[in-house]
Amino acid sequence: MQRATAPYILILPSFLLAAAIILWPLKEIVSLSLHDVNRFGMLRDFIGLEHFRVLFADPDFIAATWRTLVWTAAVVLGTLIVSVPIALILNEDFYGRGFARILIMLPWAISLTMTAIVWRWALNGESGMLNSALRGLGLINTNIQWLAEASTAFPMQILIGILVSVPFTVTIFLGGLSSVPDDLYEAAATEGAGSWDQFRLITLPLLRPFINIAFVLNTIYVFNSFPIIWATTQGGPANSTDILVTYLYKVGFRIGRLGEAAAVSLIMFAILLVFTIIYVRLAMREAKA
Fold it and tell me: What is the C-alpha separation between 235 and 261, in angstroms, rounded?
């Protein structure tokens, strides 16, 4: 009996601490979302789901929600596609591999806000490095206002999101690749399997648990990512690059509608919770199969 209950007793303090850290703020946010709240966070009358009704009637909120889904899907999938070949290359034995790994990991050590600010300078429509480089190569004749229009600003923000997410994802994949025994590749080569067959039949299946981890963690990080959008365009022009987290910031701290901001945060929490539950269940079902 003691042996059966010992694990639960050991994890109980950590569980209670995590519950306190998560559940108390969640309770406060729920309370804010159901009451009329002044700019100083003081609760007034109970109004039920009125804040949610106002949000779903706001076209800017609906647009920010769809844009958040596009932003998250594009950055996460783009990161996975780019990271796999990079990890495969860095897993090979070649001269300077250690230095190459350091170069890939360095951006991870830099503040995301600072990275976004550097990219804002690089994408400046008048004196940015990107326009200068493209003019020097003869690819453009006039400057492109990269961040002045949503048609160019949002794709560039997605590109920045992919670039800053690659180091973390490559680290996860390198950990997975290091656990694959070399004997499997040697046996496959003996049987006549080429590089593509080895990747498709050995590397990819054994790397799948690490791809799942990278997919879930990157989805959570990117969905809640604030610095890239805010540091480059602050959701502009005309709210055309707003995602939910920047919309929440504007509603809560610029306009002062804290009740609606709390409702936005609950909606974001619900979206991520539903996604995590569905994905984990699908992954578990696939593992059992």
Answer: 16
Q: What domains can you pick out in the chain, each with its CATH number?
A: 41-288 (1.10.3720.10)
pLDDT on residue 289: 57
Residue 71: closest CA among 166, 145, 168, 162: 162
Report helix, strand or coil for 44.
strand
Confidence (pTM): 0.88
Three-state DSSP at 114 gives helix
Amino acid identity of residue 202, one-letter, is: I
Is the pLDDT at 176 greater than 80, yes or no? yes
Q: What is the DSSP letter of 199?
A: I
Three-state SS string over 238-268 comes to CCCCCCHHHHHHHHHHHHCCHHHHHHHHHHH
Single-letter amino acid code for the residue at 30: V
